Amino acid sequence: MIRKLRKQLVSLSIDHARHDVSSDNSNRILYALKSRGPLSARVLGRALGITEVGMRQHLAKLCGEGLVAFDDQAGEIGRPKRQWRLTAKGHGRFPDTHGDLTVSLIAGIRSVFGQAGLDRLIEARQEAMIATYRQALQPFPGLGDRVGALAQLRTAEGYMAASEEQSDGSFLLIESHCPICVAAKACQGFCRSELELFQATFGADASVTRQEHLLSDGRRCIYRIERLT
Questions:
Q1: What domains can you pick out in the chain, each with its CATH number?
Q2: Model-level pTM?
Q3: What is the separation of C-alpha 205 from the centre of its chain, rounded to a whole number of angstroms?
Q4: pLDDT in tens, 78-136
Q5: DSSP string computed for 64-95
Q6: What is the rounded CA–CA span in Å between residue 73 and residue 53?
Q7: Beta-carbon neighbour count of residue 33 at 10 Å?
């Protein structure tokens, strides 16, 4: 009897461990597609250390759950190349920060204080964030180090940010997720404020331009930061 119970416990432990590993791999796949965009099973497998066969099994499971979908792109030779991407449900696994509450607050502020009152609130938020970012970036004299430090700050805030140096000496701040997307859709002032926020953070010695915008049919938000000579 005891031996039988032990076997059952071992079996349950193995099944639980397999579930945890599978769940962890699923989250890693979703994160990779969120941060890097559409990818093939082969590229995903290499990036995450999973065999191509194993990756196809994970993707099939995620597809069945409605979290990912694929597009077959015609190649020059052979079969079409299958590119996997997140669905709207998959993007929903990366939550907005209190989206419904934020939209309700925005509507309430507009109703009570008008658009001017909402604009002032956004300005106050921007001023506070400028002070925070400037203080955090102060120890870094080089532009690249400052962009990297800002990316870390934004990642901590939920933006899944990264920095990339370009061949022309400029830098990209890439944000693959927007934790205030619902609020930004309800009030475009938040997006305008973000661009002004970055420009004020880096000061008059740098230029900040938006290259891609999540709310303008972009997959993510990308900002180019370059030195002014």
A1: 2-91 (1.10.10.10), 99-227 (3.30.1380)
A2: 0.65
A3: 28
A4: 677 888 888 878 877 876 655 565 667 777 878 888 888 888 888 888 899 999 999 99
A5: HTTSEEEEEE--SSSSPEEEEEE-HHHHTTS-
A6: 20
A7: 24
